[in-house]
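Progress narrative, Year 2. Work on Transglutaminase domain-containing protein from Agromyces protaetiae advanced from sequence curation to structure prediction during this period.
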Amino acid sequence: MTRIDPARRGRAVRTGSEEAGLVWWGLAYLAAAAALAAFAAWPIHESWRVWLVAAVGAAVGIGSAALARRIAPGALGGALVTAAFTALGYLLVVVPVAVPSALLPLSGVARGLRDGITGVVLGWKQVLTLEPPLGEYQAVLVPWLVVVTVCSAVAASLIVRGGRVAPVAAAPAIAMSVYGIAFGVGRVSAPIRFGELELPAAREVVIGVASLALAAGWLIGRSRMLRARALARARAGTVTRSGESVWMTLRRNALAVVLLVVALVAGVAASPAVASFGDRSTLRDEIEPSIVVQRQQSPLAKYRSWFAGDAYDTTVVKVSGDVGSFDRLPFATLDTFDGEVFGVDPATRYSRLPGSADRGAGTAEISVEIGEGYSGVWVPAPSGLAASPVFVGARAERLADGFHAASTGGAIEVAEGSATDSAAGSAGAVGLMPGDRYSVVARIPDASADAAREAFASAAGADGGLDPEEFPSLAAWVELQEVPRTGAGYLDLVDRLRDRGYLSHALLDDEPAVRWITALASDGGYSFLPSYAGHSRARIESLFAELGDQQRRAGANADESMLIAGEGDDEQFAVAAALVARDLGFESRVVLGMRLPGAEPVPGIAVCESDCTGAAMTAWVEVRAGGGGWVAVDTTPQSKLLPTRITEGEQPPKHPTVPDDARTEPIEPPRGESASTDSAPPPVIDPVGPTPVTGTIVRSIVLGVGALALLALPILAMLAAKSTRRRSRRHPGDPELGIVGAWEELLDLYADAGIEVDLDPGVSRATAALSTGRAAAVALAVSVDHAVFAPYPPEPEAAVHAWELVDAEREALRGEERAFERLRAALTPRSFLARLRRRPRLPLVRSKEITQ
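Result:
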């Protein structure tokens, strides 16, 4: 029976415990990195399950790596087994941890498992298109679970296997925190002030600094543990060496602390400049359904189609529920004007709303069914949605996935129809279709709406809203009214605009116009007058020109009825009111929709009570001042009093008469007043000058190249420093200095390669060369001693020979090392740091056989 040396057994036990200590130290770092990543991901979900997913995902990844290490010690086999265990563990935990809504009923587990599998590929888009906080909606936690599980598995595999690749585990550990930054909200966190110093984007800076600090702490601790193990092995050998002095240890530790502090302080100091260089951009800002919106024709341009022919009496939507709790049912919110049409600002970002909401205090629920008279991307829904609508019917799931809302107002539906849908021609169509049904919960308008209106009335406008050269008639009419540039003055202007206009939905009194003309006539008398469609700059300018000319001809003290001049409908008057608001310095937008029973009735427009037809379609303007609440203002013109035509120099009659029939012959609209043209010439585009898109691309390229240059700067600096040092040693101008420089270069070469050299005081150069186990070192040591101690100076050929030995040794080391080791040797600062020490480096840890 073989006896085991007790000393050998003790060393084996210590070695095993030391390896276990390294592993546990690395796993502790990984757990801390997962916790930091959960903190970074919190704003995306704001749910306690963020922490649960982080804990379970890290446990699955670490457990898979540990089991794989025991089953398959090899690198390739271990990687395959780790991947298999990770996938299996993911499938076991994904439903209860990341898709909890699929647990009940049990029949939903299969659906949850399907969402967990497809979410690996498709879940990222769902996260990016939902408006945070996402909570636990559907499978939005799946991407977070994937990130934590995969990164933990990769990092744990590198940690438990140890060796030179173990430090690479810091990369996947840091990547977990990147998820919270890249997929997070587009706005940065609030700054923190320390006296006069302000730290912008404080939360993001803390996450970044903490990630680097954790990685640096782990790597430094691991290096010290390896160093202690090497010292212990050396002391257990036959040669006893004196330890490092306390002063050297303090200097080394102080240097590490100083480098870390300098890096952190530099990062924090640079954060204000980086934060102010440009707006924060996340992946969320790049994935938007706004491209669908930009392809749509402005719904305001088709406003008159609701009143033409059968569309006037065709059901657009059916509403039920707490309809009386709301005053309006918006379809589309339009906030930008290009001179031709009002549309949606291309910068508007539509996001998905998570989950569904229960009825709570201050909320009400209504149900909507799309009628035969409507289809499209614009979703009829009250303002102040509490959550995503609950769709019902065969297309419910598709519609739920396609619903998006803008934080500025308005909602769209981008689901595509299929050949199996009941609506005719639905295949390939986008948006809502006849028969689609849903219910929504929204906040009930309360006293805050009245408070917002009062605040707007007391607000002061600003100068420079519209260019008077582009809108001369509008500017002249506003100036002619002599009202203050305040919210109250604006509301007075809108009242005058409505009172002095005349409602008309058509250019011709023909068959398509019979229904709305009959309806207005039955409501107290109405005589048709033609009006042009469209709301281009030319059309709106002609409206204000008519109003201004009529007021000037009527005189200062004319009766209000003598000032009626402009014909049109909500399309023209809503745009006119929106532009007047902008001229006074207020924000404005046009909203297309219907009035519900909660709103004050407006003559000429039907109220949507249950079965709502095209007759109920209207448009109004919303205004606000100084970022306050939006205030809805009706703009429908009156339809009771006909305009009175006054020629220049004519005395207006005291009692104007209303003609029995104001019917006119068809008039071809002049080119400048059509809906699709404008009197102003099209802008000249400079083919050479940079466009905004080009500027954005160039700016992005410059930022990217600059960032890469900053990342590469330390690498380039290290390579340049070593090259400069080598050239100065090779060509010092003296053969003896050149030979000594070759020895110094060889020592630095060994330091970078990780080959230990015995440089204790009193050790000769020959002994130091022997400690390396390298024949080239021994040969060069002999040459250096001969050059230094010989009675005559060496020849230049001796210096050339010495450097040939160094060059040959460098090539030999490159041939013995793997690619990763060669790269590390080229970039490591070991040779520079070694010269800061007065005492020698570590005792011999690694040696190679001397080849003769």
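The chain has four domains: 13-277, 291-444, 450-673, 698-834. DSSP finds 23 helices and 18 strands in the chain.
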